[in-house]
From TrEMBL:
Keywords recorded for this protein, A-Z: Hydrolase
Family assignment from sequence similarity: Belongs to the Nudix hydrolase family.
A Pfam match: NUDIX
SUPFAM superfamilies: Nudix (SSF55811)
Gene Ontology terms for molecular function: hydrolase activity
Protein name: 8-oxo-dGTP pyrophosphatase MutT (NUDIX family)
Lineage of producing organism: Bacteria, Bacillati, Actinomycetota, Actinomycetes, Streptosporangiales
Species the sequence originates in: Sphaerisporangium krabiense
Length: 120
């Protein structure tokens, strides 16, 4: 699974970011993943909706496939890398790792709430 180690807090998370006013959610995902990792992706299917109850932020998660590129650091990522599922479980906060595991299931999309680290 493609992941970044965030520059601001050092945590490992799936790449992503904010949808700009002039773009669709899937195009925002394409842009954000490319900016943060150097990987060009194509979204396949929406796999989840996740709300941070503390910040009031709603995130959409897509299962995607890579088209080109190699993982690299960026302004927002100390590093980016392809992680195994065991590495995802060990490195990511629960509220972020669940997005990866939900994306691998066939009964999505899921709707979940969290506090930024833990599921509620």
């Amino acid at each position: 699974m493609l992941a970044i180690q965030r520059e601001d807090d050092g945590r490992w998370v799936p790449p992503g970011g904010v949808v700009e006013l002039d773009e669709t959610p899937d195009h925002a995902g394409i842009r954000e993943v490319l900016e943060e990792t150097g990987i060009q992706i194509e979204p396949d299917v929406l796999t989840g909706v996740y709300k941070n109850m503390v910040l009031g932020v709603v995130s959409l998660t897509y299962q995607c496939h890579p088209i080109s590129g190699e993982p690299r650091p960026s302004d927002e990522a100390l590093q980016s890398a392809w992680l195994t599922l065991d590495e995802v479980k060990d490195r990511m906060p629960e509220a972020r790792a669940i997005r990866v595991f939900d994306a691998l299931r066939s009964d999505s999309p899921f709707v979940r709430v969290h506090d930024g680290s833990r599921l509620l």
